[in-house]
């Protein structure tokens, strides 16, 4: 007797029929044919379980899959990985430009200081920490930092995002969630705190979830439309910060920035390598730095791809916004 399964992947539902004695590997092979996602990149979630802890040679029955069961699949295609590599290459190009600009000295962007009434609408209109949780003032400070983040402000103005309330999720009330967007921007809730309430999650982690939830102002499901816009927002945040990193700090950005090595630092580096502090030695040090960077890029790219896959899985499985039914709750 066959077992009928429904697999949901990025807003698309697939119906599959397998036999009880078919292996998990066979199921994953069929899913690869349907979604172009290799088995090694597939993560199947069902009834609180995941295939990642199972041997792919066990049978469908042994894996706990039953007739009529619904499965959520997460995964990245090789084509998308190629896109990540292209983004990484572009980032490396920007970093080289940033280093050149850092050596030549900062450039400046001049703001007119004018803001229209329309511009003022595209922002977070109210910040609300949870008063019954510890240190609400610290939570408010984090919400204010997000609200005042120039890169976030930039994408909100560009895409005309308005959010009524920016508030937090209590870990004990929503342990499975990192973020939630209600009514397409009426209210966005973010997990600010650690599970034990002994501190706060890192700013970059929270901001990445915020970009994810801002995307839900436009798209409800985690489909390709959502993923394209979410990727665009993250690229725009990075591009904005790159412009700041090249010397445009007059706009008030105070986040993490890249600072190019000074000639004194290069001289010191050349001395550590056994060189001298002459101009030629400085050039030799820069060449060695570049060679070292090239050696690291392969490992960094592999780690970045793995991290992005893990972040995508975490974001989608820990986001409370999925489809218009959730957006309008």
In this structure, how is the largest beta sheet organized? Answer: 5 strands, mixed
Radius of gyration: 24 Å
What is the number of domains?
A: 3
How do the helices and strands follow one another from N- to C-terminus?
EEHEEEHHEHHEEEHHHHH
Mean pLDDT: 75
Q: What are the low-pLDDT stretches, counting only 5+ consecutive residues below 50?
A: 106-113, 248-290, 324-329
Query: What coarse outline follows from CA principal-axis ratios?
Result: globular
Q: Trace the largest sheet across and list its strands.
A: 2-1-5-3-4
| Tally of DSSP β-strands | 9
What structural category characterises the helix and strand content?
A: alpha/beta
N-to-C span: 40 Å
Strand content: 5-15%
Count of helical stretches: 10
Give an overview of the whole structure.
- This is WLM-domain-containing protein.
- With 329 residues, this protein is α/β, with parallel strands linked by helices.
- The protein folds into 3 domains: 3-76, Ubiquitin-like (UB roll) (Roll); 80-245, no CATH class; 261-285, no CATH class.
- Helix content is 47%, strand content 14%.
- The protein has a 5-stranded mixed β-sheet with strand order 2-1-5-3-4, sandwiched between helices. The protein has a 4-stranded mixed β-sheet with strand order 6-7-9-8, covered by helices on one side.
- Strand 1 and strand 2 form a beta hairpin.
- Helix 5 packs across helix 7 (224-245), helix 6 crosses helix 7 (224-245) and helix 8 crosses helix 9 (279-317).
- The chain starts with a strand and ends with a helix.
């Amino acid at each position: 007797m066959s077992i009928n399964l429904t697999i949901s992947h990025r807003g698309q539902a697939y119906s599959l029929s397998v036999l009880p004695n078919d292996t998990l590997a066979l199921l994953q092979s069929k899913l690869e044919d349907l979604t172009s996602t290799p088995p090694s990149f597939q993560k199947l979630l069902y009834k609180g379980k995941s295939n990642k802890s199972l041997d792919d040679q066990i049978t469908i029955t042994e894996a706990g899959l039953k007739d009529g069961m619904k499965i959520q699949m997460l995964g990245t295609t090789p084509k998308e990985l190629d896109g990540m590599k292209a983004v990484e290459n572009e980032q490396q190009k920007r970093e080289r430009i940033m280093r050149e600009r850092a050596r030549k000295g900062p450039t400046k962007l001049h703001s007119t200081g004018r803001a229209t009434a329309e511009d003022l609408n595209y922002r977070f209109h109210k910040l609300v920490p949870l008063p019954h949780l510890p240190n609400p003032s610290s939570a408010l400070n984090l919400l204010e930092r997000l609200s005042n983040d120039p890169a976030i402000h930039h994408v909100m103005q560009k895409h005309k995002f308005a959010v009524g309330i920016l508030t937090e999720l209590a870990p004990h009330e929503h342990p499975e969630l990192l973020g939630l967007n209600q009514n397409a921007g009426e209210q966005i809730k973010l997990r600010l705190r650690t599970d034990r309430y002994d501190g706060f999650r890192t700013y970059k982690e929270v901001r990445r979830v915020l970009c994810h939830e801002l995307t839900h102002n436009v798209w409800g499901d985690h489909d390709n439309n959502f993923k394209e816009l979410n990727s665009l927002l993250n690229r725009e945040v990075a591009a904005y910060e790159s412009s700041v990193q090249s010397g445009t700090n007059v706009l008030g950005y105070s986040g993490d920035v890249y600072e190019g090595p000074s000639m004194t630092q290069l001289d010191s580096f050349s001395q550590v390598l056994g060189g001298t502090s002459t101009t030629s030695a400085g050039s030799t040090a820069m060449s060695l730095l570049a060679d070292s960077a090239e050696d690291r890029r392969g490992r960094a790219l592999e780690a970045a791809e793995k991290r992005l896959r893990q972040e995508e899985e975490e974001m989608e499985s820990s986001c409370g916004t999925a489809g218009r039914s959730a957006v309008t709750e």
